[in-house]
Write a structure and sequence with these properties.
three-stranded antiparallel beta sheet, 4 helices
Length: 195
């Protein structure tokens, strides 16, 4: 009298739910943080690279150790699909200019071009800055023009404008703190973050 629905329920009741698995991976420099896993029945801290915690549907926590090669073998496809980590570049400008780059920026521009050729669908934030030599109003305009110059360069490199966000911070966030009115070449910059 029960039919197909009862057979399906009986089948599902016999299946066990796989545990939730948490594996702590090191950052690209090999540094490892710490994760505290909470469940209905307790908590477990993992603070070693490739430490693994399985949490069952009932809340039981089982901690094991894994190796980089084992994690790579099991999850290689998933790890390869991760987006790249955000990367930041700083371009320096000549005094009072929104278009002329300081000589030390040419190497940074080359690195930036190389990164962009292999970055899938980048989202870019460009923030322009100035030194403390000008007025607040002048520096706000100059910092925005610097950000817009970099954005125009990125568009020429093939990044769609909709994927670029620009902002100008004027003299509000100096890299090298100075007294107001004092020029400093390290503060005349645009910071590009690729995500």
């Amino acid at each position: 009298a029960c039919g197909t629905a009862c057979v399906m329920l009986a089948f599902l009741a016999g299946c066990s739910t796989p545990p939730d698995r948490i594996i702590l991976l090191p950052d690209p420099q090999g540094k490892v943080g710490k994760v505290i896993v909470h469940s209905a029945t307790g908590e477990q801290t993992i603070d070693r690279a490739y430490a693994e915690v399985d949490v069952t549907s009932g809340g039981a926590i089982e901690k094991t150790m894994d190796s980089q090669s084992s994690v790579q073998a099991r999850y290689g496809e998933l790890l390869a699909a991760r987006p790249p980590r955000p990367t930041t570049f700083t371009i320096f400008f000549l005094f009072d200019s929104a278009t002329e780059l300081a000589p030390e920026s040419s190497a940074t521009v080359k690195k930036l071009k190389a990164i962009l050729t292999n970055w899938p669908a980048p989202q870019v934030v460009v923030v322009g800055h100035t030194d403390l030599a000008g007025s607040q109003e002048f520096d706000d305009r100059l910092s925005m023009r610097r950000a817009e110059t970099v954005a125009a360069f990125l568009i020429k490199q093939g990044i769609p404008a909709r994927q670029i966000e620009t902002a100008g911070r004027g003299k509000r966030e100096p890299l090298v703190p100075t007294v107001d009115g004092v020029p400093n070449r390290m503060n005349r910059r645009a910071v590009i973050t690729i995500q």
